[in-house]
From TrEMBL:
SMART domains: WD40. This is ASTRA-associated protein 1. Pfam families: WD40. It comes from the Eukaryota. Transmembrane segments: none annotated. Keywords: Repeat, WD repeat. InterPro entries: WD40/YVTN_repeat-like_dom_sf (IPR015943), WD40_repeat_dom_sf (IPR036322), WD40_rpt (IPR001680). WD repeats lie at residues 21-62. Belongs to the WD repeat ASA1 family.
Amino acid sequence: MIVTKNSISSISNPIYPKYIFRGHEEQIMSLEFDENNSYILSGDSGGTIIIWDLITKRPIIKFKGHTKGILRVTLFHDKLISHGRDNFIHVWKLNQYLKNLKINELKPFCEESKLNPENSLFINSASFCKFDLYCKEGIEQEEILVAIPRYCMALKLFPISQPNNYLMLASYENGSVVLWSITINQIDTSSKDDNNKRIVIDQLWNCKEHVETLGLDISVDKKFAISTAGDNKIVKYTFDENYQNEPIIKSTILKHSGIADVKIRSDGKIFATAGWDAKFDS
């Protein structure tokens, strides 16, 4: 479901999709906008991944990424990264394919492609929690952060103004959304050894609005977040300037249950939801 900025601001009122994308045959579990808002990615419970063109509203790539359901798909630079319930994180190189693709060459229906991952990482996906990806400025390598199995369903890690300070927004299967403060202190300032660091984690607030959470996303400006769940609620959390106090919470009740994932567009004006009905709305 794509929703306008005014609808997000008044999410307590009924919301209606601007456009419904149909192309999956099974429950959609993950959604992600690309950084330029040109494409949107979706992954379903059968392991299929589709990249959609947001201008034509048509799929341009469709392929079987995993043998089991998709937990998350995301684009990072020239790569697509997918996480499945088959205990693998795959890295796919797509830049050349997208670069050579012309809209006027697209067929009315997207045929399923056969792609091979560039790299793969075996990881325990028993809890079905989704990874988060964060690249620290000033280093060339990318770090993929994976939620600890069992209780955490989704997480978002982001830096704040103070050096070596981070915030982590996490959603849990008991329905709670929790904001954590992470501080990394150097014990001996003369040493750069990683074992010389002390990590302090504090809970800033805990809000329980769902029966169990499934999807979580935060706006690019880090001013608000939206959560979805197996129930029929979409909840918006508006943060204060310092993130110290509990957020302002607004929620809306849907006519159907089961929203597996949510993604907010980079301008904060639109968000998309992935439903158990094999559709995603925007």
